[in-house]
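Section 3.1: Structural characterization of target chains.
Under the original work plan, the team committed to producing a structural model for every single-chain target entering the pipeline before any wet-lab resources were allocated. The record below documents one such target. The sequence was received from the expression subgroup and is listed exactly as submitted; it comprises 329 residues.
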Amino acid sequence: MTPRVSPNGLTLARGIALALVGFIVLSMLVNFAARTAITWGGSRLLGTYVSLKGCSVGMLTQRLTLRHLRIEQPKGFEGEPLLEAPTASVRINLWELWHGRWHLREVVLDVDRIVLLKNREGRLNVDALKVINESSASTANAKSPAVGAGPVRLPGFRIDRLRLRIGRVIVRDAQQGDLKVYEAVIREKIFTNLSSPQQLVVVVLAHAMGPTALKGAGLSAAAALYGAGLLPAGVLGVVAAKDSASAEFTREGAGLLERVERFMREAGKVKRVDRRRGELWASVRGCHVYVRVERLGRRRSRVTISARKLLLPKPAIAAGLLYELASRL
């Protein structure tokens, strides 16, 4: 005999099913809105392509998780992406989002690397971004621009707390023919009360450029436009303590030293090679360079590169040479 279901039980089951469907639909809508705002809105803001590989929303935790955020180089610059961030998370206020206000309680941005390019005319890639160009134009057109003034900001946009990490900054200078790499640029830095997407862009780029001593006219104007208080006075004075950079490779020491020697002959002038001790001395881009190749085990070796100019350590040049060597192996 088939059991009978009471009308009250049937109504409850339908209500639960409808609530579940509504919850799923709402999650999909929030996911779509967030992904569109970041990719389409970000591309329009920067004037270059912005992409995401994954985007998910936790409705209960009110947290948005982004995977593989990537910003391409602006028009006129080619090569590696301008920015790559494997993960980012955002704590959102769904109630305010429903009413059209982007109130972000916390943004955690973990940037893997930023690639800064300088062309033969001396122009930086960051100055070619649309948001920087607009900021520069606004500053130039203003008779006496006040700090924090600028274009109309996105209504309701606010970041209460930004936690920023930047792992590696790569600088390619076509004028000088240099490649420099800066490691662990920002282990973690916290900013509060950001009031526009433009301000977020300026904060990230300005702090990425801090240790490089590069100066972009457009970015400087944008920094003044969106609040100089976001840029610590000592950010351009960051100096690495060591003069060397090292990395491990899955190659035998002897074969690796030959590849290092070949690379150094292309990059500069090799002065001396001690194959027995795995050492090499060279002159590259006006620096005295010393390379040591150590065998750590079966098919494992470590390469250490140090660079000095006028007896002063140049760790960024050493890291740049190591990065360029690794890309060729």
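The longest helix spans residues 7-46.
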